[in-house]
Amino acid sequence: MTEPKAFGALLRAIDGFEGQATTTAALKLLALLFPRPGELRAAHWSEFKLDEEVWIVPEARMKMRRPHRVPNRAYAGGLARFFRSARLER
């Protein structure tokens, strides 16, 4: 997706999703951070450094066997905090 209007339409469609709030937040994180769905599903809270606005995916889960730093800007960080407050511990 390369058009800003299309991205906005995607976010609005996600906002209109009538499923669980955690699913909506996960869809937004996928759109904002661009991880593989399995990477997000396998994420652990210890990997999210919310004060540094970064998600560090450990080398054990990366194809190249190097840690991967995913910038986690304020909006995405807010979604991550939502997950934590929803007590989706992992």
Task: Explain what this protein looks like in three dimensions.
Helix 2 packs antiparallel against helix 4 (74-85). It is globular, with a radius of gyration of 13 Å. The longest helix is centred in the N-terminal third of the chain and has 13 residues, at 21-33. The mean pLDDT is 85. It contains four helices and three strands, in the order αααβββα. The chain is mostly helical. The chain has a three-stranded antiparallel β-sheet, with no helix packed on it. The chain has helices at 4-15, 21-33, 37-41, 74-85; strands at 48-49, 54-57, 68-71. Strand 1 (48-49) and strand 2 (54-57) form a beta hairpin. It has one domain.
Set down the secondary structure blueprint.
Layout: H1 4-15, H2 21-33, H3 37-41, E1 48-49, E2 54-57, E3 68-71, H4 74-85
Antiparallel strand pairs: 1-2, 2-3
Helix pairs in contact: 1-2, 2-4
Across the major sheet, the strand order is 1-2-3
End-to-end C-alpha gap: 31 Å
The description of the largest β-sheet is: 3 strands, antiparallel
Q: Judging from the principal axes of the Cα atoms, what is the shape?
A: globular
Count of helical regions: 4
Count of β-strands: 3
Relative strand content: 5-15%
Average pLDDT, all residues? 85
Helix-strand topology string: HHHEEEH
Our Rg estimate from Cα atoms comes to 13 Å
The poorly predicted ranges are: none
Structural class: mainly alpha
Helix content: 40-55%
Estimate nothing, just give the exact number of structural domains: 1
